[in-house]
Amino acid sequence: MKRQKKMAVINDFSGFGRCSLTVSLPIISAMKIECCALPTAVFSNHTGYSDYYFDDYTDKMQIYYSKWQKLGLRFDGIYTGFLGSVRQIQIVTDFIKHFSNKNTTVIIDTVMGDNGCTYATYNDELCQRMKDLVPLADIITPNITEACILSGTPYSENISDEHSLLEIAQKLHSIGCKNIIITGINDGKHISNFVYENSGKYCLLKNDNAGQQRAGTGDVFASIIAADAVNGTDLITSVKKAADFVSRAIKLSDDMNIPSQEGVCFEEILNILM
I want to staple 247 with a disulfide (CB 3.0 to 4.6 A). Which of 6, 8, 210, 252 is the partner? Predict the structure, then answer.
């Protein structure tokens, strides 16, 4: 009998602003995979707003997923997003070991920083622990800032050529990363993604810059990559699809005058992924 696939998604829940789990749940579900959420924190709205409610879920995460252990759950995919502490990284490491097997695809979105800087919650210890976590993944999706941090490469906003990106990807591969997608490479005219596969195959995929920067686009992109990976889609095909979807959603959001803090109106074109 045909069996529906399951994916555990470990990320924060933001009630407003189209990011994290509120993006992943509809996208992964639309791609015919049961999306099983493990929250790392609960926000009323994402932190790009001047005021928000925040509830740290770290102390509850292991209690929460212990019930999944009792149910004997196993997952076809495990996808992680923002992790805000060393303890959360350890919890995720334990989760992957408990709930995966040789047929489980692990996707880690290394949400650590942007524009050459780490996020305020990140320090040297957290960066090192993320380096320890990424070899557990089948696919990682760092942006250029995160790829530089993980590979020990000095950051420059001018890194966009294939040779420099290949050097960074090879450094990541040497520390145990398998399939690598370096995302959001902006040369002004294009937003590109560099794909390095475990086999050594690589390519730079360019998309026209579709519009203004928006919250949550990385979550949209990584959710499509994660679902496609579990569904067995070729990695380069998946990156092209995810990048095209994000571009279309950005353009439509600009046309509809949706504030950038509210992310992209992916709901309007979700049928494309079905």
Answer: 210
d(CA 151, CA 93): 20
Taking the C-alpha atoms of residue 46 and residue 101, their distance in angstroms, rounded to an integer, is 33
User: Distance between CA atoms of 231 and 21, rounded to whole angstroms?
Assistant: 20
Please give the span between the terminal C-alpha atoms of the chain, in angstroms, as a whole number: 21
pLDDT of residue 157: 87
pLDDT at 216 over 90: yes
Q: Which helix (H) or strand (E) segment is 135 a member of?
A: none
- pLDDT score, position 188: 82
Name 156's Cβ contacts closer than 8 Å, sequence gap at least 6.
none
Q: What angle do CA 140, 144, 147 make, to 5 degrees?
A: 50
User: How far lies 139's CA from each of 106, 134, 143, 182, 222, in Å?
Assistant: 7, 9, 13, 11, 10
9: buried, middle or exposed (CB in 10 Å: 19+, 13-18, 0-12)? buried
pLDDT digits (tens, 9 = 90+) for 46-102: 999 999 999 999 999 999 999 999 999 999 999 999 998 999 999 999 999 999 999
Length of the chain: 274
Partners of residue 80 on adjacent β-strands: 10, 108
| Residue 147 confidence (pLDDT) | 98
Other C-beta atoms within 10 Å of 103: how many? 9
The pLDDT tens digits for 234-254 are: 999 999 999 999 999 999 999
